[in-house]
Write a structure and sequence with these properties.
heterodimer, A: 292 residues, mainly alpha, Zincin-like, 2 domains, 4 strands, elongated, B: 184 residues, de novo design (two linked rop proteins), 7 helices, MamQ_LemA (chain B), transmembrane (chain B), membrane (chain B), LemA family protein (chain B)
Chain lengths: 292, 184
């Protein structure tokens, strides 16, 4: 289960690289030499913005979600549960934060296990029992163990770079930046590369969402390998599925980090969704339970 | 040119040797750490017991045999040193504690006391921590033992002075009680 999910992530990341390569190729076909110069600039811009966020991810996410750090004395029972999972996983103790919000939800972030942070809404702490909360904590620490902040940073960098390249090239087309010495090129190839440049950012976002969905499934599987108790996480997901309240912030920038997507599921189609449907995740966990 | 190729080949082989050696050492250290974690959690549980026994005694004076079982099991658990001994004592203590908590069920006043409730929560989390540290230890022993037995890492066990380690297998007397099935 975990190995299959890892392979798929690698496949998708390679797909992202291939997409980048196609975009570069299309740019070269269309613009000749001038197109090539843009690519390192776009990668550079994207790299700076995303990796800045990656290094400051724990602090940045705290500000964006309004989470407040808490100490062991504030909620000893929660800390006990987290310590149980750190023992099961061999991870260091993460920082713990609470978001004051009635919608049950949780997330993890941090560039490596030493800088990890996991946060819970006050809603999730109120409604869940010990086993359910343990499942949620295991899912969040599984993201930490699988370095999902890194994976999503890589995905976001590539998607961002593709978007910037396409954007700049689209502007150049508009202002007639195409070189005359390319006039002898095949018009079909030119049209084709134009279509690629327009569709590439869309494809990049779809790939990014697909990577995020794979990481969610992987985190569920890793969580079970920590607790050996699929029933806990399954019933936690059932609580989340039954709950219709949504975290009071709809910033798409941080949507992927929550255990349950804070975006209204109906408005986003599956292709662009950052999470696999919760019923699918419950079904997978149920099949693990029957394996014993 | 030939010299460069020869040097590169030697460097590659050296890197391979070092990485294999380091992998074994690392796996072995992780098992040591996992073992230390088990000991920490067992110690934590042992430290909880006198308090728990005193609390239960306050409400249920006539359950002396249950108290004795817990105290004996605790004494055994704190003196055990090898993996097998510790595991056996751990299983006995878990069993004795289960008996103690079952006794508590019969005393509503005890069950309602704040002291007992907080001890019960602490015991529950400690039992989980013991179980998880056991699981983490066994996972790491399995990784180490696989490395010790499989090629190429198996060639380096001699130099690294790393050998197979013992699994932590809890002897839970209840698991031994196979239900009697009769075919008439």
């Amino acid at each position: 289960m975990q190995a299959a999910n890892r392979r798929k992530t690698i496949g998708l990341l390679m797909g992202m690289g291939a997409l980048m390569w196609v975009v570069v190729y299309a740019a070269l076909t269309y613009f000749g030499g001038t197109g090539a110069g843009i690519v390192p600039i776009a990668v550079g811009i994207s790299l700076i913005s995303v990796w800045g966020a990656y290094y400051g991810s724990d602090k940045l996410v705290l500000t964006m979600t309004g989470a407040k750090l808490i100490q062991e004395s504030d909620n000893p029972k929660l800390f006990d549960l987290i310590q149980e999972i750190t023992i099961a996983s061999g991870l260091p103790m993460p920082k713990v934060a609470v978001v004051i919000d009635d919608a049950p939800n949780a997330f993890a972030t941090g560039r490596n296990p030493e800088h990890a942070l996991i946060a819970f809404t006050t809603g999730i702490l109120d409604v869940m029992d010990r086993d359910q909360l343990q499942g949620v904590i295991a899912h969040e620490l599984a993201h930490v163990a699988n370095r999902d902040t890194l994976v999503s940073a890589v995905a976001a960098t590539t998607a961002g770079a593709i978007a910037i390249v396409s954007d700049i090239l689209a502007r150049m087309m508009f202002f007639g930046g195409r070189r005359d010495n390319n006039n002898n090129a095949n018009p079909i190839a030119l049209l084709f590369s134009l279509v690629i440049l327009i569709l590439a950012p869309l494809a990049a976002v779809m790939l990014k969402s697909a990577i995020s969905r794979k990481r969610e499934s992987l985190a569920d599987a890793t969580a079970v390998s920590f607790t050996r108790n699929p029933a806990g996480l399954r019933s936690a997901l059932e609580v989340l599925a039954a709950d219709s309240t949504v975290v009071q912030q709809r910033s798409t920038a941080v949507a992927h980090i929550w255990i349950e997507s804070p975006l209204d599921a109906k408005s986003v189609s599956k292709m662009f969704s950052t999470h696999p449907p919760i019923q699918e995740r419950i079904a997978v966990l149920k099949s693990m339970e029957s394996l014993g | 040119m030939e010299l460069i190729i020869a040097l590169a080949a030697v460097a590659l082989i050296a890197v391979f040797f070092i990485s294999q050696y380091n992998r074994l050492i690392r796996l072995n250290i992780t098992v040591d750490e996992a073992w230390a974690q088990i000991e920490v959690q067992l110690k934590r549980r042992a430290d909880l017991i006198p308090n728990l026994v005193e609390t239960v005694k306050g409400y249920a004076k006539h359950e002396q045999s249950t108290f004795d079982a817990v105290v004996t099991a605790r004494a055994k658990a704190t003196t055990a040193s090898t993996v097998a001994d510790t595991a056996a004592a751990d299983g006995m203590l878990t069993q004795a504690l289960r008996g103690l908590l079952a006794v508590a069920e019969a005393y509503p006043d005890l069950k309602a006391s704040a002291n007992f409730i907080s001890l019960q929560e602490e015991l529950a989390t400690t039992e989980n921590k013991v179980a998880f540290s056991r699981q983490f230890y066994n996972d790491n022993v399995r990784n180490l033992n696989t490395a010790v037995k499989t090629i190429p890492s198996s060639f380096f066990t001699g130099i690294a002075k790393v050998s197979e380690r013992e699994f932590y297998e809890v002897e839970d007397p209840q698991d031994r009680n196979v239900p009697n099935v009769s075919f008439n």
